[in-house]
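re: ur msg from earlier - yeah i can do the alpha-L-arabinofuranose complex, just paste it... oh wait u already did. ok heres what im feeding in:
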Amino acid sequence: MAPSRKTHAIVLASVVLLSIPALLVAAEGQTAQLTIKADQGKETINRNIYGHFAEHLGHCIYGGFWVGEDSSIPNTRGIRNDVVEALRAIKIPVLRWPGGCFADEYHWKDGIGPREQRPTMINTHWGGVTENNHFGTHEFLDLCEQLGCEPYICGNLGSGTIEEMQDWVEYITFDGKSPMADLRRKNGREQPWKLRYFGVGNENWGCGGNMRPEYYADQYRRYQTYVRNFGENRIFKIACGPSGANYEWTEALMRELVGRRRPMMNGLAPHYYCGSGRRSRSATQFTEVDWFWQLRNALRIEEILNGHIEVMDKYDPQKRIAVIFDEWGAWHDVEPGTNRGFLYQQNSLRDAMVAGLTLNIFNNHCERVKMANIAQTVNVLQAMILTDGPKMLLTPTYYVYFLYTPHHDATLLPTELTGPDYAFESDKLPALNVSASRDQSGKIHVSLVNIDPHNTLEVTSQLQGATPKRISGQVLTAGEITAHNTFEKPGVVEPAPFRDAKVTDGGFTATLPAKSVVVLEIEG
Ligand code: AHR
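and the outut:
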């Protein structure tokens, strides 16, 4: 489903607006050669790579997803309709909850039963505010049903008990008669829910208990023992992974948890945030030095991923353990005047670049990466959506997710690329970043990110093993590197039809604007 008709109208208007500044800044074109091996696809890009994360943090849950049944903001059982509609349009496949750091101090039994009787707690990590527990297990699983996505719950290993974790899984998934299943029924839900993804703690090297990897591995072994499969439900167990390039953490966990016969985990969850700019940490007030710095840090995720995969391959050459990259994204200063603990930041064309190139990297590593969850869905860090009371806007990052939907569950096509560098001061980065896939109807999609803010890029591509007949595309760009959408001007950065691609004999050519994300569709 495409964004709403109103959004579509703004998209068309932006074609005209975008073309003028784009022409003004276009300098001498550079060239790149791309080979797409359409005859060699074998790995599937798991749609869960396009997953999301929602924590009890600032206005992600409260105000972002949850407004309550009595709100004047249109809602279904307390959940905002506009937010659900927007996330359905990007085919949100999976949502991680309740944290984050919040997960390791969350006691799920406080979030069930009549809302007015639920106890409160202090959200110590995020602003020290009082959490009223109005959004709990039932509300989260209702949200996932409304979104049509899989739930991914992160359990409390840091400060919770094993019994508590065991009870949560029983409460959600047990069909028969049991204390927890009966409690669920008393709270209005007769049938169990299906729950596949369960995290056993979060960042237990830090906010989740400051543990050493060996200590966490032992704790993980105990806790995961009681995370049961009831009936037909099968839990995919996810262990806390390393921070950034901490390969020792990965080494210890792989050594302690992956035996020869049956590994004790199905997934390992690294986290990496690529920070902000060098001179400025503002999401929207920055210059080229900050653009370059952030994109270099974003591209570093590939080196980090390769480092962890190398360790994992040593213990698990059969690739039974998935990388579940369940937190990643850009982290800027909060918007002036907002609570520092709420991590509310704007989102510019630079964030769209971060998303486009990171998703390309995950696609290209889909043999091992089976899920990723950008932080965080609404009003927190690199969000898809910002809200202000009844108002809602879609960020440039949202539109990258929208443009990349054809990659969901498509077959990855290997690519080879030779292209120019984007040079800045005495440093340089590859200007172009790409991934390609073939969907079930046979269409090929190619996502290209040109991070050079000055130069257009002429791409000449050969399609090995396919004969292209038609090509079309969409582009996300803007006149300024800092361009972003506001509640007053929500359509500054939006996708527009891309007309600078042509089929050639055995491939295509495309002229990519400076600082753009382009997604091409090729039919044979
Ligand atoms: O996403 C914000 C925080 O970043 C999460 O709570 C934590 O896991 C990470 O450090």
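cool cool. Residues 1-27 have pLDDT under 50 and may be disordered. ping me if u need the other ligands too
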